[in-house]
Amino acid sequence: MVNQINKLKIFNDPIYGFITIPSALIYDLVQHPYFQRLRRISQMGLSYLVYPGANHTRFHHALGCMHLMQKAIETLRFKEVEISAEEESALLVAILLHDIGHGPFSHAMEKSIVEDVNHEAISLLFMNQLNDEFDGKLSLAIQVFKGEYHRKFMLQLISSQLDMDRMDYLKRDSFYTGVAEGNVNSERLIQMMTVVDDVLVIEEKGIYSVEKFLLSRRLMYWQAYLHKTSLVAELILMKVLKRAKELTLKGEILPCSVPFQFFLQNKVTFESFDSKTLDLFSQMDDFDIISALKAWQTYDDFILSTLSKMIINRDLLKIKLSAEKISAEEVQALKEEYAALNNISVHDASYFIYRGKIKNQAYSKEAEPIRILKKDRTIEDVVEASDQLNLKSLSKLVTKYYCCFPKQLI
């Protein structure tokens, strides 16, 4: 008997109301274990330690992006931009899967466990694997995702300075954190889009919505993504993972899940990322990391247990932000003091005391610009077209320096 399951489902989303699954292919992709894994991967990492509501997942976000892409296609077709059924499907698949390569606590993982392999590269590996399973139905989506398709505006909808990804995560993250400044008017931005000479542009009357979007992005970075407590929590997690890897390479077997164990024991590079590695990666989510941290709280290694407890109990390191660079001497003095207090080496103290910098740039002049279509049909970069002086400052790179150290040293 043929399986007569109805694949045209509806999701209820707190941001947009109802999101419809437009085709059987999208339904099958959403149902796939690779995609269902995103339900167990938090969209904002450890930000829930600051904003208790920020427990939404990458699953929510991917569906939200797909919904916005449906709206964008509808708008562009209304403005007589031709988009075939195959191109529509490719755009929806590409945006749905754009984040499928994110690991648990993605940014901390990328810098410590899966070295030198970013989530975009892993997303592409997943897409190729799915393309094999779905008999080549994702080929056009992969071409668009890689920027190899001849219609340039399609990649801009997926990845640019004003894409469906950013429009959804700003609106969604602002909703779940309660940081109202991040709320962008994605509906209006999409209504103002059109295509000229194969390039995505925003009609001039939409310029204030673009300005608000860029300002929201800047504020969300300072208030949410680069919030100092979220930042220090992520840095501690990176140190935990680094320490776990160090102990494993010395031959210790730490209590954790089988897939996690594999990534601790092996140096995974892009070249060695084969289908077996991908399969193990697809079995990992936030729960692997959190349950390992819980087990490591009582492990007989001062660094690993202390750092794990910090995250589990939200008793974090102190972090100080400054406009000036923090000197190496200052950091060294703190390490020596902490080492003496806890009877550990200065090398071990460097797991608790370190410095670095964070950068925030809402709009990059080096990247592909957001183009404004003027009434006289000329096209200008939004920074030039805007009468707002603050847009020039939004494209300036702002750097802040930080130093983390245990509260014991205050």
**Tally of alpha and pi helices:** 20
The computed structural class is alpha+beta
CA-CA gap between termini: 71 Å
Order of helices and strands: EEHHHHHHHHHHEEHHHHHHEHHEEEHHE
- Binned, the helix content reads 40-55%
Count the E strands. 9
Q: Biggest sheet, in brief?
A: 4 strands, mixed
Shape from CA axes? globular
Strand line-up in the sheet with most strands: 3-4-7-8
Structure description:
The protein has a four-stranded mixed sheet with strand order 3-4-7-8. It is of the alpha+beta class and about 400 residues long. It contains 20 helices and nine strands. It is about 50% helix and about 10% strand. The model has no long low-confidence stretch (mean pLDDT about 90).
Give a short synopsis of this structure:
By secondary structure, the protein is of the alpha+beta class. It is built from 20 helices and 9 strands. It has helices at 24-31, 33-36, 58-78, 85-96, 106-112, 119-133, 139-145, 152-158, 164-177, 186-191, 207-225, 228-249, 258-265, 275-282, 286-296, 302-312, 328-342, 346-349, 382-385, 390-394; strands at residues 10-13, 17-20, 193-196, 199-203, 318-322, 354-360, 371-373, 379-381, 398-405.
Break the fold down into its secondary structure elements and pairings.
Layout: E1 10-13, E2 17-20, H1 24-31, H2 33-36, H3 58-78, H4 85-96, H5 106-112, H6 119-133, H7 139-145, H8 152-158, H9 164-177, H10 186-191, E3 193-196, E4 199-203, H11 207-225, H12 228-249, H13 258-265, H14 275-282, H15 286-296, H16 302-312, E5 318-322, H17 328-342, H18 346-349, E6 354-360, E7 371-373, E8 379-381, H19 382-385, H20 390-394, E9 398-405
Parallel strand pairs: 4-7
Antiparallel strand pairs: 1-2, 3-4, 5-9, 6-9, 7-8
Helix pairs in contact: 3-4, 3-9, 4-7, 5-12, 9-11, 12-16, 15-16
